[in-house]
Write a structure and sequence with these properties.
- The chain is mainly α.
- 59% of the residues lie in helices and 4% in strands.
- The protein contains 23 helices and five strands.
Length: 437
């Protein structure tokens, strides 16, 4: 098979670093048995399956991870998934690269040996032993070693996730959180960075991260001037509360939680941080204790205004979380009045109906219904001005939740009482819609 290179372009082969050193076009033939049958690229780490066919390790591991149980070339069912390194082919590829160095071909480095389950069990034992002695430096060295393993290959990542390392890291985080936050900041940061790609954790791991010491530490870390650390913290809080809202009972008693979350939203350095922060606030306000204890503070910090501002140009995920926060904050009289008072509230709620997702529509209808049941009717009149009547009628024609449908029907009936206040209201626009109430 022949490949052509030009000076300004890099080849896909050999890690995309094969460049021509001549201005003229150069033809270089790569031996067929040096190329992976899956990717057709030059193999970096050739391994042989039980069928006798050699593949590049990265390609065949992805093939197996995708659920395939056959050999890609022979289509035979694999009796096992053992991958035996083909040292002879690898040395031949390296020699070929050296021979063609003048054409800009870089030598393929000798691949690292993949880790095994035994390696992970051994490092877990070492970390637990070091933690029991309070040896933070030794723990940090071991955590950094795990990070190096994870960066080497996706196979290593999968093994790390599947062999209980998440629980050990969570236990380590709890142990050193109970000591000095400042003293062990580097270790706690590295643990959180690893944990964010190990989610979801098991019940035991979540219980360690959901302890008072761990949550207090995460709240403190949210104030540290490190964007990556803040992202890891808020993602961990989101994971904990979305899987088990009982952790809210512990979180609400920790000082500075509302301030830390609002500060993350006020400093829009990362879209994912903002969305995760709204998600954490939503889960807090979704519990009775969280709403009672923290909703007044969130109102003081301007969560209503921030949520409405976020909705203006938000994507689906952020829209759902911001609307969820507004819906939960509207459960109280003070929150409802604060939301309704804002000039953007009703127009934005009507606009988002049927335009984002079914969940977002549920939140919008829920808030409009709360305004209509607890106000003087001004919100309904404003909603009519911006086209809510037609949207609610259309909504009844699609598949929406039964509770949302009942609320929409009630609002339509109430809106009929205010239609004479609108000069531009014309029921003729809706006479062809099938009524469902």
């Amino acid at each position: 098979m022949a490949f052509f290179w030009k000076r300004p372009r890099a080849s896909r082969l050999a890690g995309k670093k094969l460049l021509s050193k001549q201005s003229s076009r150069i033809e270089l033939t790569i031996p067929t048995h040096f190329r992976c049958p899956i990717s057709l690229d030059l193999m970096k780490d050739p391994v042989t399956l039980s069928t006798g066919i050699t593949y590049d390790r990265e390609s065949i591991e992805k093939w197996i991870r995708d659920g395939n149980q056959t050999c890609p070339v022979t289509n035979q069912v694999l009796t096992n998934f053992d991958q035996i390194p083909n040292h002879m082919i690898r040395r031949m590829i390296q020699d070929w690269c050296v021979e063609n160095r003048a054409h800009g071909v870089e030598r393929i480095p000798t691949p690292r040996t993949p880790i095994t389950s035994y390696d992970i069990m051994e490092i877990c034992s070492k970390m637990m032993a070091a933690a029991s002695k309070g040896d933070a430096k030794r723990c940090l060295d071991l955590v950094e070693k795990i990070n190096v393993w994870a960066k080497e290959s996706e196979q290593n990542k999968s093994l790390i996730k599947d062999n209980g390392l998440g629980y050990v890291l969570a236990a380590l985080f709890e142990a050193f959180s109970s000591l000095s936050f400042e003293k062990h900041e580097d270790l706690l940061k590295e643990i959180l960075l690893l944990l964010t790609w190990m989610f979801p954790l098991g019940v035991e791991g979540r219980s360690k991260l959901g302890s008072t010491q761990s949550l207090r530490c995460m709240t403190w870390l949210l104030s540290v001037d490190d964007l990556l650390l803040k992202k890891s913290c808020v993602l961990t809080l989101k994971e904990l509360l979305s899987t088990d809202q009982t952790h809210v009972n512990t979180l609400v008693d920790i000082d500075g939680v509302p301030e830390a979350l609002i500060n993350l939203i006020n400093a829009p350095d990362s879209h994912s941080i903002i969305k995760s922060s709204f998600s954490v606030i939503y889960h807090i306000l979704s519990t009775q204790i969280g709403h009672n204890k923290l909703s007044p503070r969130f109102l003081e910090l301007g969560v209503v205004e921030l949520s409405l501002e976020a909705l203006v140009e938000a994507d689906k995920g952020l829209s759902e979380m911001a609307l969820g926060v507004l819906d939960r904050i509207s459960d109280s009289k003070e929150g409802r009045e604060r939301v309704q008072k804002h000039a953007l509230s009703v127009p934005l709620l009507v606009k988002k109906i049927l335009r984002v997702s079914s969940l977002a529509t549920d939140f919008c209808v829920s808030m409009l219904w709360k305004f209509s049941k607890n106000g003087d009717g001004s919100a309904l009149v404003e909603a009519l001005h911006v086209g809510a009547f037609q949207k609610l009628l259309l909504m009844l024609q699609v598949n929406c939740g039964e509770e949302t449908k009942v609320k929409a029907t009630e609002m339509l009936k109430l809106m009929n009482q205010y239609k004479n206040k609108l000069e531009c209201f014309d029921s003729g626009h809706y006479k062809y819609l099938r009524k469902s109430y």
